[in-house]
Structures are given as structure tokens and as C-alpha cells.
Structures
1.
Amino acid sequence: MKKYTWHKQSIAPDLTVIDCPDHDPLKDFRRDPTGAYVLIRCDIENAMIEVAICDEKHTIVNAFRGRKSQDLYYTIFEYEKKNKLKWFSRSDHAAYLGKELKKAELALLEKSSYVQE
């Protein structure tokens, strides 16, 4: 077994290393049970990332705009919590939002096209 070292952390004697299988975004896709989903796009002209929250009827119920991925996901999660909404009941759904927002942020910085997975 490979010896693991980290910056200053000690390693548990019973450390388990889990090799992750490849994830297929189409085959392994699971919709959030709430039915909510997000649409993300870049407004390069105004240097903004836009996120639309859609419900199970495909209606945009809220929209958020910001320049950085972190600003957007913090605002979205705080809004969801404050208003007792249930848009992201699955942790992989929340992780997907963060991943896609970072991709959009990089596309915005590079003034290149962004395509949501």
C-alpha cells in the first residue's frame, strides 16, 4: 500500500483508501427528488454568470446573477435556507452546481463559450 502523507495531519492506522469508479454523467444521472434543477449561462458582455432555478414543471422560479462561483452558490444556498425551500436535497446535486459554476466562471474570465453538462 502507498504511504500517504499530508501537510501536517497524522494518518489513522486504519485509513481506508477508496478508488472511485468513472462517473458517466448521462448513464449515472439522477434527478433531484424535489424536481428542481438549474440552468447556467454566461453573460460575457456584462461579465456575469446567471443561474435559473427551475421547478419540476420547467418553470424558472428564481434567478441569480454574480461574477464568481462562490458568491453565487453561497447566495443560492442561503436563499434556499432562509426561505425554507428544497432545491438541493442531494449532495451530488449541490456539488454539480459548484462544479458547473466554476466552469462558467473560468469561461467568463477567458471570454470563451460555456456549455452546461
2.
Amino acid sequence: MDTIAIEHACERLVLDFVFFSDHQQPEALSQLFASNGVMHRPSGDSLIGRDAIYHAYQSRPPGRLTRHICTNIRITIDSADHARGISYALIYSANLNQPSYSHFGIETEPRHIVGEFEDEFVKTPEGWRFAVRHARFVMHTKGTL
């Protein structure tokens, strides 16, 4: 069992997820999950299967800009085909319809959120994928809720 390769593959899933979410690529994001993968959202909603995950992320408002700053990725390998992980994310959001301030970009919304992802990874014929992903909000700054 190549633990470094497993850790790297799982870390890459974590980073690809936030990239595809931030860049509104729902098809690529949904393919990070096993065919029967589950995404538990902070609201408590559960998305089961790639189609449900795709449609949920595809329906995001087009004017919403997000950036997930993902860190503290910790992978625990259970076996050659199963691993678990936890990571933290600082989430900024903005409205693309706002004016840009020269080279500083668009002003963020006043609320910033600290969240965490708790993951179960599984090795599939397609490679490593999310089996289950739990997203939680842990803290936020004062601002509009």
C-alpha cells in the first residue's frame, strides 16, 4: 500500500472540490464523487449520487462569486481502498454585479465563514473518489445572515 500516493489522491480531491465549486464547474465537481456518493450540506440537506450533486451545484446563482481557502487537510488511511479526512475552509463570497475596485477586485460580503469538511474516500475503478462528504459551518464573522 502506497500511503503517500493515497494521501496525495485524497488531498487532491479536497482541493479540486473547492476549485470546481468556486469556478462553477458542477460537472467536474460531481465526478469527484463515487457514483453513489453522498454530500451532506451545512443546511442538513443530503445530495445522493452524482446527478443530485451536479444539479444542486449547477443551480447556484450565476452572479455569486466564492473563494474557499482550504487548509489543515488531514488524511487517515484505513485500508488500501478506504480513507478518511478532515479539512478546514475559510469561505469568502461576493456578488459579481458589484463594481470592481481597480486592481483590488470585488468587495466581499461582510460575512465570512469558517467551515470544515469531514470526508470518507473510496478507491473506485475511476480512482479515488468521495464516498461521503460532510460540510459544516463552524464560525462566522458578523454580517448579514
3.
Amino acid sequence: MAVGTVATLHGGRLVLARLAYVVVLLLAIATFLHAVPHWVDGTLLKPPRASGDRPPATLVGIDIAAALAVPLASAAVAAVILRYRSRDWFGLLASAEAVLFGCAIAGPWSSVSLADSWSLPTRAAIKLALIAIVAVLYTFPNGRFVPSWTRWLLVVFAAWTVAGVVLTAVDPVVARGVWQLVLLAFLFSGLGAQAYRLNSVSSPTERRQTKWIFYGLTLIVAAYALWSFVEFGTHNQVFATLADILVQLASIVSALLFGIAMIRFRLYDIDLVVNRTILYGSATVLLVIAFAGLSAVSKRIIEAATGHSSDIMTIPLIVAAAVAFGPLQRRIRPVVDRLLPPRALLTLFFTDICDSTARAVTMGDERWREALTTYRATVRRGLRRFKGSEMDTAGDGFFAVFDRPGNGLHSAQWLRDRLRELRLDSRFGLHLGECELRGEKVSGVAVIVAARVMATAGPNEIVVSQIVHESLGNPDGAFRDLGERALKGLPGTWRLYGSSPGQVPDERS
């Protein structure tokens, strides 16, 4: 069995991999907990650079809380990855990397001095964190080194980090500068490897996984760049503390995005997230600008009329802005959707009643209306049961979408049995493809393909396209090959598969 394209471990290899995982985990946790008290004391007692430059105690407390929240969030992500990927080496590496990343980015590790008895294990944990981050950049998302020679770059980087732990008798200023340059070079080589993989060898699902990672990295880089500018450009500790809080929050979001990419949870949503961020962000900015302008104008008018300044118009302007948000968002949405239509990799589900016209004539209007009511209620119950979303209904036909092919197929299986008991023989079609999401509508060629796939099915038959079949596998002969079929209005032929009444196969992780 495989997890995606990563072979699972068995026997002694699995035991050794999990043992190494536990050792790294204990090292990270122990050294981090040791460093926290020293770091908190140093942060609270940090002297100001200039008079009046010390940030408020409340702000410092928020900064400390945000920093300590990073390893907690990363540990939660690591636990989720471990839950789903505990039997393959890359899942174990990614889970360990999440923990190490959270400990490294938070700050406490850096507070341990060389004179501290925990200095060596702490520095070893820091180096392991860096090695894990670079290793993930070279191997994400399927555990393979792409290009293959990056494995040797990782060996060189690991040797360099080990040397940095062992050799301490070096000019600290020079050593730090050289180390930072080398680290940046290896991190950029990892990003280059991801860019090469994205453009050359990644599957559609892997591309979406990489998108989540790149958005997370972009957040961290942007937040860190802002912090660097404030810290070294302005020398203002209040602003530096605020910027540090942003870095910690960006790190939490980045860890969450990494977890989503690893377990392939609703990968398609990244385009939707970007689209909606632009939509709501632009609407908010326009309202803020309008509010500021109208507020300034109203104050001037009141001052000119009464000779006194007043904020009396602020409350109605706030209410007006809140009321206007919805209509403004609806006006902006078509523009944003046109400029940046979000795309989704969805399982498309179609079903209808076989020979519905003849059945309606035979049953008569009243009985047919009652049958349709029962049919629609049953279908909607089946969609909800397996986390499907109803997109459209026309007569006795339903169009729905699912996040995963397995959920769509299980829904079809469940509905086939229930509708057959109601003597409402139905047919089902499933296809997996990229679609455009415009508002609440799903469109694209893949939707047409799914409808045509359903049209080839007979009574109580579930027909799936080849891509769905490949995604689900075919254990115990659950599918039979229907051969190449021409689909109305679509070029070429399409290989289709029919699901027999037996057990529905589980979707691969």
C-alpha cells in the first residue's frame, strides 16, 4: 500500500523510524522547556534603547503569548499529520519538522548561552530543525528528491550544520554572518527545487499542495521583512514588538497551511481563500476610505454651522458602513471573480431517475409529485450524510460536489440502495476535475464531462471516469471496465468504469 506516492514502512524500518521520531521530539520539547524561563526573563527585562522606547507591559505580554502559541499550534499540526501519515517516512519527517519549526521560530532556543549546561543539546535541536526544514523543501510533497541531486545538497548542508555545533572557537561576528549567508543559500535552493518540481513533475494535486506551502512561506517572508525593517531601520522597540507579534501570527498560519497541504484537506480552497481575501479586503478598504472622507466632511460642516467640533455623525456613518458592506461586496464580487476566478479540484456528482418521463405518465401528477418529494428528500439526506454540497436541481436531476471521490462514491452507493427500495431506479455519474467557482456556482468542462458520464449509466448503475477510478483503486473487483466511450459533444473517447453492487473501495490517502 502507498500513501499518495510514498511507500509505507513495515516491520523493523517502521520501528526505527518511529524511534528516531520520538528521540527528536523529546530533544525538542526538553530543550525548549528549559529555554522558556530564561527567554521570558530576558524579554521582560530587556533594556530600552532610548528613553520612552520601552513597549507597554501588556504589549510585551501579548508578544510572549504569541511566541509561545507558535510551538503549540505547530505541535497540533504535527499531531494531525502523525494521525494520518504515521506509517510513511515522509509523514514522520513532516510531523517532526512541524514541531522543530515551531520551537525554532518562537525564540526561546536563542536565549540559551554557551555557558549553559543545556547549550549543546539546544544547539543540536536548532540544527536538526534547520536540517528538517531544508529536507522538507527538497522532498515535499511526495518524499522524493527533485531534482535527484538535491539529496547531496542536503548531505552537504547537514555536514555544515554539524560542523557549526562542534566548532565554536570562531569569531562570533564573522561566524554568524557566514552562517546566515550559507543558510539563506540553502533555503533559496530549496525554494528553487520546489519551483522546478512545480513546473516540471508535479501532478495537479501536488501543485495545489505546493500552492499552500508557498502562500505560507510568503506570509513568513513578508512578516520577517517587516520586522527586519522596523528592528534595524527604526530602532523603535514598540514597533519592533508589534512586528514580532505579526511574525509569530504568520508562523502559526504557515504551520496550519503546511498541515493542510500534508493531509490534502480541501486543497482547492486556496484559490477561493485568495479570491475571498481580495474581495472582502477591497470592500473593507473602500468603506474605510468612504467613512474617513465622510467623517471629515461632516465634522467640517458641523464646525462651520455651530462653531464647535462634534463626533455626532460618527455613529450613523458606522451604521451606514455596516449596512453598505453587503451590497458593496456583491458589486465587487463579479469583478474579482472575473480577474481571479478561483479554481477547484472537485468530485462532480450527477444523478437522476431512469425513465422519469414514462414513470410520470404512468403514475399521474399527484403520485409523481409525492414520489419526487420523497426522492429529493432522500437524495439531500444522502448528500449531507457524506459531506456533499448540492449545486443545482432540475426536475428529478441533482448536481452536487464532494471534496473527495470516496465520499461521492459512498453517497452514490448509499442512495442507490435507498432509492431502489423506494422503487425509484436511478443512475449516477462521477468525475474528478478542475472547475471555476463564481460565487456559489461551479462551472467548466469537467461539469459537462460528469453529466455525460452519468448519461451512460443504466438503472441502479454508478459510472465513474478513469481519473476517479485511478484515485479510488479497484480492490476486490469493485469496478468493471466499460471500455472506451464517446461522450456527447466531447472530443475523443473516454474510458469509463461501472461500480458493481459490492463493497465501495476506500479512497487512497
